[in-house]
Amino acid sequence: MEALYVTVPVAMAIALFFLWVFVKAFKKGQFDDIEAAKYRIFFEDEFPKQDTKKPEAE
Amino acid sequence: MEITEPAQTVTACDHCGNPFRYVKIKARVEGEEKYFCCEGCETVYSLIRSLGGDKYYSLKGSQILEPVSLAETSEDLNIDNDAVYARYVRPVNGLSEVFVQITNIHCSACVWLNEKVLSEMDGITFAQINFASGRAKIIFDPSKLKLSQILSTIRAIGYKPQLYSPGQSTNNYKKNLTSLFLRIGVAGFAFGNMMVLSVALYSGYFSGIDSDFKRLFHFASWFFATPAYLYSGYPFMKGFFTSIKRKTLTMDFLLFFGISLAYFYSVYVTLTDRGEVYFDSVAMIYFFILIGKFFEEKSRLHASEKLEAILCRLPEHSIRVVNGEEKEVLSESLKLGDRVKVLPGMRVPVDGIIESDALQVDESFLTGESKPIGKKRGDLLLAGSLALDSHVVFVATTDYHASTLSSLKLRMEEALLAKPKIQIITEKIASYFITTVFIISLLTLVGWMIATGGDFERSLIYTISVLIVACPCALGISVPTALVMNHILNSEKGVLLKNPSVVEPLAKVDHIFMDKTGTLTEGKFLVRECTIDDSYFPILYRLEKQVNHPLAKSIIKYLSTDGRVPSLSKEIMIESFQALPGKGITGSLEVKGERLIVAIGNAALMEAEGIAVNDSIETGSIVHLAIGGNHLGYFVLADDIRKEAVGFIQSLKKITPKITILSGDSEMPVRATAETLEINSYFANLRPEDKKAHINQAQSRGETVVMVGDGINDSISLASADVSISHTEAEDLSLEKADVVLTSGNLNGILFSLLSAKKTRQVILQNIIISLCYNSIMLPLAVFGLMLPVICSVFMAASSLTVLINSLSLRMRIK
Questions:
Q1: Phi, psi dihedrals of residue B411, rounded to the nearest 5°
Q2: Distance from A35 to chain B by nearest Cα, in Å?
Q3: Does the CB of A42 have a partner CB in chain B at under 8 Å?
Q4: pLDDT tens, residue by residue, B668-707
Q5: Fold of B501-522+642-758
Q6: Mean pLDDT over residues B492-514, rounded?
């Protein structure tokens, strides 16, 4: 059972990593519009446009 | 384009999906035959197809849209000036960024269409719409494109754009909301991870655990609990200190005090290695309470945004008249007593008394009343109303920031911050409770000091356990969890409870007052009867087309049934034309070389023209036609009763038999509605003050009153009722006044909110009793030093969980 002395801190580190990922994603605005994702997957252009207008990121 | 007899196979418009009523327009779009209910829908359909947009219809699915009305764009033309740009447009790396609220977005297809059309425009580099708020973020090149062009493009496809810039309070709510979300995330993270450790500790207590492992788990729990305690609990910590400063016991005080006790006692246990820890309770309680706070804050943000969207409609620039000289100034600089001129098609920036001649104004966004209102010299003009037919000069009666609209906003903001009454009651209970607990714990300390002969450490531990078992955490979450659950259930049914405190009066409702037009009825006028020969239709069409009045619009719609009418009417020349507010239209026309004097309007107009009409029929609004002094017939226009209204009233009667219609309409239509719906009590010809009087009268009899209505004509009565209910189809300030908003527009939402309120009240009372039971059983045990730490921790978790589960069971209880 001594393995616990290693696995518990490792688990804590992994948990912290995911907390960091969550905060990062939050700051990037992933949760700003949680409605959109499920609809936007249908939006992709089937016929790519000719011109090279590129949508600008935030 | 040609108009055909309705084909049997196609029953609904190919664009909007509404069933055909009068017209069916057949059009060839890319070689296919399609049918539409109006020209607007046809235009939009071909536009969408030209974008390669079958996608729109597959995304739209079976959703039914509002038929398109090709809106006027006069308002858009006034916006290309520096003040507007300064307020709404932000420069972003050489380009410009602007937010546009699109008010009638209802599905993903709408979003797709708007984004598609916008990003196709030359000069727009980025256009994205937020699904939840319907707000578009547009980045465009100001050298290629003007703001007005963007807005009119959106208008052209049948949507209603509105420039948007978030105000102070919205920004604050938004900031709160984002930080709350993060705090929930952190608390949930801590809670989830700690439960794993807690299970090990609980089972270790019963089956034995190596003390080294126990210490390891204690430290790990401490590690997870600390961010929850410090970060997630920060708002409560702030509340705790303000409560100390103000010397009042609030829920924040109680909660933070209890949690701090649990936390620091656990830290003490961890370091000294004796007893059990309560770290898991810290994270769990914060997690659930924060979720409640989040939803509360979200509904506040929603209300505040809606309000600001309305304020954004006030003009940036106004014309101030000084000594007969006109000068353009910023609206913000307008002061009481200024003389202001507003051109037709523009909005009035401040309240004022009219000095110029009579005019028609549209107060629809203040009042929800779609009919233009006639105003004359000396009348009060409200900020936000739209001057329709002529310019107006008025003397401002307020400063810009003190107009009816602005002060309404202030009052709204106050209301948004108000606490639910039942929450105040629990806080009161809790404050008595905590005082008692303090006294008991002091007595415990003193008692044990005497009993043990001065063993301070033992006495202190007993005292702390008294404080911990008495921690009213379960009491703290008993109200918010139930309210949140109720909120969620209601919003699933399309009912938005803007103010959580409405649960209390909703549960006790005695008397329900309903507005008629737009609430029990559709609020759209339709031609029911026509006695006019159709050879006069082109003349009618030509004249009615000149005015912007809902009755005129309904008549136009009716006349367009015959496709030849619009084209025939083009041959008619108008020589003179006059719109008479509250009466109708008169004009002289030239038809095939013949000169005709035409009067179209109500009985009052006919009387003024010296034409005798027989006005015995009173089932709706009547519009007469007279040419050259001869009465040639009339239209009867009436409003439809909502489809669900009959069933709704039937079920409502089971909840409370007292249902009353309050209407500003005339006797006949109100009686007809009341009879159809089997409502015995109704009042007609009411002014807004009369409606309020009826409500106050009922209240003075001790009844709890619910008012259902829309528009500012109802807003006084909405404000005086105990609960006010409005629906989102009314795109106006009554939404801000209402406690409950029917987002689905379906009346049955009211039934649901009434039933759920009753159940929620029950659950809240049960919760309070449960949590007090837990505390009062544990308290004597702790006082006499009989409490085992682990039982205490299990009870702490159990009391909060029971309360939580009880609140969650609301879903099962409301069927």
A1: -60, -40
A2: 6
A3: yes
A4: 778 888 888 888 888 887 777 788 888 888 888 888 888 8
A5: Rossmann fold (3.40.50)
A6: 80
- Choices 3.20.20.150, 2.70.150.10, 2.40.160.20, 1.10.10.10: CATH for B317-413: 2.70.150.10
Cross-chain residue pair A42–B115, CB shorter than 8 Å: no
How many CB atoms are closer than 10 A to CB B300?
22
Residue in the block written with tokens 């007292």: B658
The verdict on a CB contact (< 8 Å) between A53 and B182 is no
**Residues B625, B633: Cα–Cα separation, whole Å:** 6
- CA nearest to B806, candidates B771, B755, B757: B771
Distance from the Cα of B54 to chain A's closest Cα (Å) equals 11
Its pTM stands at: 0.60
Q: Which residues in chain A are closer than 8 Å to B131, comparing Cβ atoms?
A: 33, 35-36, 39
Report the residue of B106, B111, B122, B210 to disrupt the A interface, i.e. the one with the largest count of A CBs within 10 Å.
Answer: B111
Residues B452, B775: contact at Cβ < 8 Å?
A: no
Cα separation, B196 vs A7, in Å, equals: 13
CA distances from B635 to A53, B529, B565 (A): 54, 6, 17
Yes or no, beta carbons of A39 and B131 under 8 Å apart: yes
Q: In sequence order, what DSSP letters do the residues of B407-442 get, joined into one string?
A: HHHHHHHHHHHPPPHHHHHHHHHHHHHHHHHHHHHH
For residue A22, what is the nearest residue in chain B, using CA coordinates?
B185
Cβ of residue A18 closer than 8 Å to a chain B Cβ: yes
